[in-house]
Each structure stands twice: as C-alpha cells, then as structure tokens.
C-alpha cells in the first residue's frame, strides 16, 4: 500500500487551488499519495479592512497551529501573507518557482490604467496598492474592499453581471471601474482573461513575496523521508534568494504585509537586484530605492535587503510610510 502525507489548506478557492498544485508536484516527486486537510482560519471570517489587520498573519495562524499540533505534515501558504519572523518549530522547507510577480488591473470594458476616466473608482484593500495608484494618478478614487479574489473581481462593472453562475464572485452588479489583484492569484484561478493590464513594476512594485508559495513543515521534518527529499528538490534557489531579500527589507523596516511598502528582487546578469518603495498612504510621497549584490546565498540576500532598508530609514522611510 502506498503511504500518504497530509497537507493542510485554507478553504478559499485560491488556497485550495495552489495547495492542490503544490501537493500534486510533491506527490509526483516523492511517490507518496496526498490527503488534504481543510483548516478554517480567522482571516477568512474577519471582515474589517486589511489596513486595520496589521501584520499579525491572521491567514496563516490557524494553519500553523494545526501543523504544530500534528494535524497535518505540510502547510501551503501564499508567502506574501506570512509575517517576516519565522515561528519557533516551523521551517519554510520549500519555496517553489515563482509565478508572475506583478499586480494586475482588472478594468471594466477592457480598459487599462491610463484609459480609465477621470475620477474612476478603483477597488483595493491594500495600502501599498492604494498609495502607488494615487502617486501615479491623483484623480482616481480608491475604494477600500475586502473578500476573496472572485468576490473582489465581481465588484467590477460588467464582470459580476456576466458571470453570475458563481464562478466569479457573488456581486450581481459591479460598482467599480476596476480592481487591482495579484496576477499570480488570477492565473492560478484561471481568471487571467479578466486582466486588462499587467502593471509594470516601475508604476507598482508588488508586495514582498508576491507570487511565491511557501511550503512549511515542522523543523524536525515531515516524518516521511521521501517527502523531505521531494521538498528539497522542489525548492527554487533564485526564488528563495529573491523573497529572502524582499522579506529582510520589510522586516528591517519593521513593517508588515499591510504597510505601504513594495519590494521586488530579480536576478540580472548574475546579480541580485532589489527595488523597493515606501509610500505615504495618500500617495503624496514616494521613496524609491534600489541596490544590488552578487548572487550568493540566503545570508547575502538578507544582507542586501537589510542594507537597502537601512539606507531608506536613514532617508526618512519610516516617516514617509507612517511606520514611525
Ligand atoms: N492578500 C491575499 C492574497 N494572498 C496571495 C494572493 C495572490 C497570490 C500571490 O500573491 O502569491 C492574494 C490575493 C491578491 O493579492 O490579489
């Protein structure tokens, strides 16, 4: 009889889709079978604005507790939702190759950001996205929205109406001209056709870790040698170095996932390049900085992130981003 491992997931469409993808890859690599364990998390029932939730990792906490308690062997998270400090007893055993890192505009009637009319209403619950949108176009009206990806997409005029079979949100009548969502989530859910513009990082830097998954286990391992080996093979070094640099920056700025901070690392000509932005939430001030280092190990990637953060702090980033 084939042995199986248990993977824990949140219940949202995005969570179950990306957990299913990761678990299938690990099943193939390990030769083991997968059992999926659904874990209800606090983040799924809280209805306040993301701006008020802070960086406490509400989405991940219950799943992590389940993992620590032995209720599953592995948890799959969106890396950008994880707090930057790793909890005792758990490790990110694998960070698979990253999806598209960019933020995506889903506009009504095929419109791009520049085509939206004066005073257009754009939905996002993210202070980072709101600040960068305001900095780019002062006339836009930012509407604070929450909910899972299909629900948010359903707020766009026309989108909620045409897809009332439940595949896209519950809204039957959109009230917004556009929403901003992570391209990665849209692609994983097969909703790419609703993207009307992939926002260039020169306009909108993504959240640290955006587009990456984190496969977490207990520090002692999963209890399945084949699975531990499969995780090691699934880990993507370039993705790991990128996200370690981005998260070290966020951590050094003492900011969480709800802060108006964007960061994106990339590998260019054998170097790790890190771009970062700290914004005033109203978009009136935008501090953008960049740094690079030879491509080396995790410690060097983290040093790059910390160093860039320290330079930004010296120039007043904490005041700009309202972290002070
Ligand atoms: N905060 C929710 C969340 N966490 C991860 C993703 C998308 C997938 C990813 O960035 O890896 C999303 C939705 C979104 O931001 O549009």
From TrEMBL:
Binds 1 dipyrromethane group covalently. GO terms for molecular function: hydroxymethylbilane synthase activity. One of its GO terms (biological process) is protoporphyrinogen IX biosynthetic process. The modification S-(dipyrrolylmethanemethyl)cysteine is found at residue 257. Its cofactor is dipyrromethane. It comes from the Bacteria. Keywords: Porphyrin biosynthesis, Transferase. Its EC number is 2.5.1.61. Signal peptide: none annotated. The keyword Transferase applies. GO terms for cellular component: cytoplasm. Residues 241-313 form the Porphobilinogen deaminase C-terminal domain. Residues 5-220 form the Porphobilinogen deaminase N-terminal domain. It catalyses: 4 porphobilinogen + H2O = hydroxymethylbilane + 4 NH4(+). The keyword Cell inner membrane does not apply. The porphobilinogen subunits are added to the dipyrromethane group. Belongs to the HMBS family. Tetrapolymerization of the monopyrrole PBG into the hydroxymethylbilane pre-uroporphyrinogen in several discrete steps. Monomer. This is Porphobilinogen deaminase. It comes from Glutamicibacter soli. The lineage of its organism: Bacteria, Bacillati, Actinomycetota, Actinomycetes, Micrococcales.
